[in-house]
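INTERNAL AUDIT FORM
Audit reference: QA-55
Scope: verify that the stored structure record matches its stored sequence.
Auditor: D.O.
Record contents follow.
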Amino acid sequence: MPVATETELHRSAALDRLHGTVAAAMREIADHANAARTLAGRDEPAARAALAAIRACSADALGSVRALVALLPADAGRALADDVHDTLGHALSLASLLAGGAAARLANEPTLARQALGQLAALAAETIAELERLLGAPAAPPAAAADMAMLASLARDQPVTFDVDGAALSAAPPEVAGAVYRIVRESLTNARKHTGGAPVHVRVADEAGALTIAVVNAPSPRRPAPGSGRGIPGMRRRARAVGGRLAAGPTRDGGFRVEARLPR
C-alpha cells in the first residue's frame, strides 16, 4: 500500500482547511440570509444587521481563502485551491449584489427583499455543493457543466444573451466542458463587477474540432471598477490546462471581449 509523502499530507491538510473554511462561511451566510428573510417587513434594523453580517462574513472568508491558497506549492493542489478561490469569489460577488438589492428594498418592498434573500440562501447551498464536487473528486468538473441550462443560470439578473451549441458542449470531454463552464462563469462575474449592467453576449461553438468561447460585453455606462487582477490569468490557466488558449482585452467601442479556443 503506497505511503503518502509529507508533501502530499501537507497538501491534503491544506485542502481540508480550504473545504472547512469555505463551507463554514457559506453556511453562515445562508443562516444570516434566512434570518434577514424572516425579519424583512417585521424588524428592519435587525434585518439590516443580518445583511451587514453577510458582508463581514464574505470579506473574512475571501481573505482566509487567499491566505490558505498562498501557502500551497505551485502544483496540482495549488491549481485546485485556485479553483476553490474562484468559485468562492464568484459566489461572494453574487451574494454581495443580492444582499445589496435586499437592503435597498427592505423598507418599501419587503416581499422583493425576501425573494432576493431566498436566492442568496440558495446560492450558498449551490456553492457548498460545487465545493464538494471540486474537493471530493478533483479530476472531474461539475457534472452539470455540459448542460446549456447551467450556463444560462450563471446570468441571474444580468442582461445576457446566449448562443450556445448545446450538443457540442455535451459531447465534449468532461474536463473541456468544465473549462467552458468556468471561463464563462468568470467572464460573467467580471462583467457584473465592472460594467454596471451593460449587455453581455456569450457564444460557445464547435469550430474545426475545438470549442470556441466568446464573451463580449458592451461599453460600461460608468467608469469600470478596479479588479483584483486574478480573473483573466485564472481563465488563461484553465484554457492551458486542457491544451487551449485564451485572449482578453478591450474592444474598439470601449467594451470588453474574452475569447478562448479549447481543443476537443
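Auditor finding: record pair retrieved intact. The domain at 140-264 is CATH 3.30.565.10 (Heat Shock Protein 90).
Action required: none
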